[in-house]
Amino acid sequence: MAVALLLTNICVAQNYFDDFPVMANPKTVGDKLSTRFLESKHQLYGDRGIHYAEVCTWYGALKFAELTDDQDLVKELRTRFELLFHIEKDLLPPPIHVDQNMFGSLPLRLYTMTKDERYLELGLPYADSQWILPPNANEEERKWHEKGFSWQTRLWIDDMYMITVVQNQAYKVTGDPKYIDRAANEMVLYLDEIQRPNGLFYHAPDVPYYWARGNGWMAVGMADLLYDLPENHKDRPRIMEGYLAMMKSLKAYQSPGGMWNQLIDEPDFWPETSGTAMFTYAFIMGVKHGWLDAEEYGPAARQAWLAMVPYIDEQGNVTEVCIGTGKKNDKQYYYDRPRPVGDFHGQAPYIWCVNALLEK
After folding, report:
1. Where are the beta strands (DSSP E) in 182-328?
2. What is the annotated signal peptide range for this record (predicted)?
3. How distant, in Å, are the alpha carbons of 123, 160, 311, 345 from that of 323?
4. Do 187 and 122 meet the contact criterion of CB atoms below 8 Å apart?
5. I want to staple 145 with a disulfide (CB 3.0 to 4.6 A). Which of 56, 103, 151, 338 is the partner?
6. Rounded distance, CA 278 to CA 280, Å?
7. pLDDT digits (tens, 9 = 90+) for 140-157
8. pLDDT band at 131, cuts 50/70/90?
9. Burial tier of 6 (Cβ tally within 10 Å: 0-12, 13-18, 19+)
10. What is the pLDDT of residues 13-72, one digit of tens each?
11. Within a 13 Å sphere around the CA of 144, how many CA atoms are in the beta-carbon half?
């Protein structure tokens, strides 16, 4: 029965995810975004290495190159990375924080594609060190470690992409179940602790606002984890429950034009592209893999994709992207956030959507 449902969903999904207008063709969009990435300078944390938003974009571009068998693009993306082994070695992020550690997903992805051992040797310690308590750990970090969770646990919604992406990649390259178990165990913790009754997530327990991109990290994190998690894994039912609850609520808050706003439940706020792209990705993944009803969510995903594409300018920059945003218990603060053109926070999830649409 489950297989039949999945096959039905795939057939219906092809109808919703095919025959796009020229400007919305996933391959065309992917080429444009990947070219723009290669033209871009590094985004840095000051003296703490390459920023996670660039890593997310780079990771997406690599997957796009693989899906389209674009060996020239693979070569250019690898050439950009090769500098990190010598000339730009100082830009490697230190494994001292959840945002820096997720860098490991990038060399691990390159190892999957090339089997070059240098990538494995560089990437795997970023995954391992998320569970190795540093000598200078504070009391809260020690507490999480003693409970079997990553010492980098913060109960911030961003973490459910930053932790899971590197652990998932480590699982794929090693086959060691401890990595996927870590990711699933963390996800269940976060769902139990911070998911609201309506399926969405506050930016933080003391900041009761449904910020779009923050929720987007959870949406993408759950979708990617469900894709990688074995069907018989003990934590799969709980994660699926959390994912379905979130998707139902997101569908209810999608605007008539297809986008989601900077604060999801505030109709007077502006449409925000990075969160919209993340939710669209989660919808596409759910429809294609049979987790979501295709006839209900397929049209919503298609509408969102068609609404997103016009926000890409002629240079391949995504517009209306909320800048990196810390929590603040002030609604106006979220409304007033700057919207830098071409911010990697927006470029990345757009490429992820391209990949989800192209995957068979």
Report:
1. none
2. none
3. 28, 19, 16, 8
4. no
5. 151
6. 5
7. 999 999 999 999 999 999
8. very high
9. middle
10. 678 999 999 999 999 999 999 999 999 999 998 777 999 999 999 999 999 999 999 999
11. 21
Residue with tokens 């997406």: 60
C-alpha distances in Å from residue 234, one per residue of 2, 168, 229, 238: 18, 16, 10, 8
What six digits make up the tokens of 199? 């399926």
H, E, C per residue of 136-163: CCCHHHHHHHHCCCCCCCCCCCCHHHHH
Q: How far does CA 165 lie from the centroid of its chain?
A: 8
Name the burial class of residue 171, with classes exposed (0-12), middle (13-18) and buried (19+) by CB atoms within 10 angstroms of its CB.
buried
pLDDT score of 8 more than 60: no
Q: What is the mean pLDDT of residues 272-301?
A: 98
Cα gap 304→257, rounded to integer Å: 8
For tokens 């997103």, what's the residue?
Answer: 308
Which residue is listed with tokens 């002629």? 314
Query: Would you say 350 and 308 are in contact if contact means Cβ atoms under 8 Å apart?
Result: yes
How far, in Å, CA of 282 to CA of 277, rounded? 9
195: β partners: 201
What pLDDT is stored for residue 205 in this prediction? 84
Domains observed in the chain = 2-34+137-358 (1.50.10.10)
Q: How far is CA 29 from the centre of its chain?
A: 18
Model confidence, pTM: 0.95
Q: Write out pLDDT tens, residues 239-266.
A: 999 999 999 999 999 999 999 999 999 9
